[in-house]
Hints:
Blueprint: E1 16-17, H1 27-33, H2 43-60, E2 66-72, H3 74-85, E3 91-95, H4 99-110, E4 114-118, H5 128-138, E5 142-146, E6 148-149, E7 154-155, H6 159-168, E8 172-176, E9 195-197, E10 209-215, H7 217-224, H8 237-244, H9 256-272, H10 274-295, E11 310-314, H11 321-332, E12 334-335, E13 337-338, E14 347-351, H12 359-375, H13 382-394
Parallel strand pairs: 1-12, 3-4, 3-5, 5-8, 8-9
Antiparallel strand pairs: 2-10, 6-7, 9-10, 11-14, 13-14
The structure holds pyridoxal-5'-phosphate.
Pyridoxal-5'-phosphate is lined by residues 21, 73-75, 78, 100, 146, 150, 176, 178-179, 199, 208.
Cofactor: pyridoxal 5'-phosphate
Keywords: Aminotransferase, Pyridoxal phosphate, Transferase
GO molecular function, one term: L-serine-pyruvate transaminase activity
Amino acid sequence: MSDAPDVDELTPPQRTLMGPGPSDVHPRVLRAMSTPLVGHLDPSFIDIMNEVQELLRYTFRTDNQWTIPVSGTGSASMEAAIGNLVEPGDTMLVPTNGYFGGRMKSMAERAGGEVVEVEAPWGEPLDPADVQAAFDEHQPDIFGFVHAETSTGVLQPNVPELTDIAHSHDAYVVADTVTSLGGVEFRADEWDVDVAYSGPQKCLSCPPGASPLTLNDRAMDKVLSREELTRSWYLDLSLLEGYWGDDRSYHHTAPITNVYALREALRLVAEEGIEERWDRHLRVAGALKSGVEAMGLEMNAADDYWLPSLNAVRVPDGADDGEVISYLLEQYDLEIASGLGDLDGDIFRIGCMGHSANPKNVTYLLASLADALDAQGVDVDGDEALDAAAAQLRG
Length: 395
Ligand SMILES: *Cc1c(COP(=O)(O)O)cnc(C)c1O
């Protein structure tokens, strides 16, 4: 055997995170993560679980009893939602207008479902008329949509209209709120969404590890009356009910520290007020958008469905997206991301999420981006960008 590896103490770089997630974590959340562990069945942890559930209900705007943090990242809560709701033989309708609709499709297929699609180009939302037509044609049992499409910077408007269409066909609605929860208006109960899942490291500014999920009684009744067991043991909600429901009995060891972190991140949401938090994202990301446009760049999504938490900006002629992104990381310790799939090479993805959605980050981003483009010989106006953002922030 070789000698023990000589590895340096951990000193990660101090980045400013303005990509598609994770976002900058609030110092209070980091502090919560360095508090002592208790056991996952400790009476004090049971209280913490209850508090997290209460705070999650507030953040989702729901009274659903079935509101929990799923162990794992956003994809775990996504798979818990789809894997439990979709039974073999069920048909699920999913969107084609972004990367995460494609992931819904993969998960529904693995759950044994038939998948049908409602089409819209990458960079546009679903049209309710197309959803209606897809329902009339396919009569799906479950309809999934992405409220905030992180791959395209598109916010899905008209959610109540979509849920009405689904419910008039007796279908269940699953919403991906990974990049909207805690940053963009979302109302699970008022909008009649049956199941919504999210992630902690986007607008909640919490490290990844415990991911919000909520189901109403109607959806949970379907899950609890499945004929065939859910294919995942780990994410089986009928088993997780034993831990997060009344019994509080062992299923798997909860990621204690991630639950602490989520509790603190949600406490910050409650202190700020959920509606005030939505307003802050609109205001601060609005300044980012004004700045980017004043610089001479173009947003990818039309204003009507611009997503404040994820700004998709067209890569200008003469710029190489990869070079700009590397320059920002190397010169400024600033993270943004490139496009995915159909938009690969066409857009920058600039997050404005949670704790990262603040005037300091936006100003830093605009000045750094102007410099990065200038360094590539692209003619942009950094001063105009900063003036436009400042004017917007002053209100
Ligand atoms: C990030 C993201 C996910 C997946 O979350 P992970 O934490 O990466 O597993 C799902 N849906 C959307 C819209 C996302 O942005």
